[in-house]
Specification:
Layout lengths: L4 H9 L9 H4 L24 E6 L3 E6 L3 E5 L2 E6 L2 E9 L6 H15 L4 E10 L2 E11 L11 E11 L2 E10 L5 H10 L1 E2 L3
Antiparallel strand pairs: 1-2, 2-10, 3-4, 4-5, 5-9, 6-7, 7-8, 8-9
Length: 195
């Protein structure tokens, strides 16, 4: 009796790690519904946290919490401590971002790539590094690789621009964690280190 095609496919795929994916992984990120925030959010950066200046070979520096795990990529760096994090990405840009350009281009891309993204505000702010566009939003975290659990996150993204270069700095923490002062400090500490 011939082996059914779906059984044969499953037998061949199993050794390659191509078996059935968890249900969460099959849900497109943008199609997810917002997760309820944690009842007692964790992730507050302590008021006693020590900060150190990180100097990137990509031409910028800023203060980051001492002791957070760092991983670098070709276009940026990431700092993580449990459910809190900072993701910094550098790229070429032809012009400085504006509230209008961010609403027209950045926000749609953010919603496509993110998980249940909800935009709170898009504003232009003046920081020591110059005029910056700030996006305040929330989304669902990536699933925990072990448990598959997700949390609702609060995020601030700052878009810095200088001479054809843009750096996006994303701060994230569980929704409701009180990190406003620390995020303000870090966003204000950003400096360009190349002329």
């Amino acid at each position: 009796m011939p082996t059914p095609a779906h059984v044969l496919t499953a037998l061949l795929a199993a050794p390659l790690g191509l078996g059935a994916l968890p249900a969460q992984a099959q849900t497109p990120p943008a199609a997810q519904a917002p997760i309820a925030p944690l009842q007692h959010p964790v992730g507050d950066i302590p008021d006693t946290q020590v900060f150190v200046r990180y100097h990137s070979p990509l031409g910028f520096s800023l203060e980051v919490p001492e002791g957070w795990a760092r991983s670098t990529t070709a276009d940026g760096v990431r700092f993580v401590s449990r459910l809190d994090g900072i993701v910094i990405t550098a790229r070429t840009a032809h012009q400085a971002p504006s509230v209008a350009s961010v609403r027209a281009q950045e926000i749609p891309a953010l919603k496509r790539a993110g998980r249940a993204v909800r935009i709170s505000a898009v504003t232009q702010v003046r920081l020591p590094a110059g005029k910056v566009v700030k996006i305040a939003y929330s989304d669902n975290s990536a699933p925990n690789p072990v448990t598959g659990k997700q949390v609702r996150e609060e995020r601030w993204r700052f878009l810095y621009f200088r001479q054809g270069r843009e750096v996006a700095v994303d701060f994230y923490a569980p929704y409701g964690a009180d990190n406003v002062d620390q995020w303000h400090r870090m966003s204000q500490s950003f400096r360009w280190s190349r002329p």
